[in-house]
Amino acid sequence: MKISVKQLLLLNNMIYLEPEEGPFPDLRRFSGMKVRDWMNAIEIAGIADDEIPRMTTAQEWKNIVKAAKRDYTVMEMRILTVYVDKRQDDGSKSVIFLSPENAEAIVLFKGTEMVAGSGQWIDNFYSGNMADTPHQIHALEWYRQVYRKYHLNQYEVTLTGHSKGGNKAKYITVLDHTVDHCVSFNGEGFSDRFFNKYGMEIMKREEKIENHMVDYDYISPLLNDIGSAFYYYGNNYGIGGFTENHLANTFMHSGENGIFQMDINEEGRPAEMSAFDEFANSYLRSMEDDEKGKALEMLNELLNIVLSVNQYMTEVFNAASTLL
User: Fold this and answer.
1) How far is CA 89 from the centre of its chain?
2) Shortest CA distance to 76 belongs to which of 95, 98, 61?
3) Fewest CB atoms within 10 Å of the CB: 34, 92, 149, 273?
4) What pTM, to 2 d.p., does this model score?
5) pLDDT greater at residue 226 or residue 112
């Protein structure tokens, strides 16, 4: 893999530069063009807090755009295709970036919109009691289609994604031998049923998978993971509080003019999060399937309440910022 983990993280943050309302253009307009064309279409000065949702401030978004513009390799990538899966109620998005200088194809799956009740968010909890979820199956079908259509066998293929996007990337890597590398950011793991069904495939391909996680992320510990694990100190800043530990830009320690770094936590996952990991998985394994399904539904509802409160606080923050 020639594209760095830091560059993959940047791409995973850039894919969120598309709020329904705001200063960012629709990425689909730039299919066949360079990332440079996409980034140059964003007027940084026009990014304002009152137009930006998702517990992310205008300055955080500006840092992401500036970081992209500093990276020549990223800017020279070609946006081969952008796909929105309209079979899903939240329009799951996938993008293929080509890096000609590295002969590498980056297949990126956009992560969960942290909005209560969104389709991919609900699918996160289906995965705790299923071997294959609807979002995972559709992502695999799309990948196999584009692999043939765009002759990706000519490239070194890296799959990546954040949150549910990372889970999809790992799922496809296990089930399809054409993937060379997989880099997941805060992507959740898989159920016992998945391991029972695909044990042989996991053994063959788990060495291709890297998991990069913020040390206090609360989604990645929920289920059983595959591959190597790397932990980072997160930036718990902005307006979302603890829930920001799951955001893609929480990995980024940003300075001026788009310079950022990822700070590895050599001690790994903190003790309290490891305890949560052990408790959550032991608790789920102790249940019958019907009980497990109900427990996952309850956890989904609890997190929906948290997200609803944070979304309300985001709206309050945005309204207040317009008055200052």
Assistant:
1) 18
2) 98
3) 149
4) 0.84
5) 226
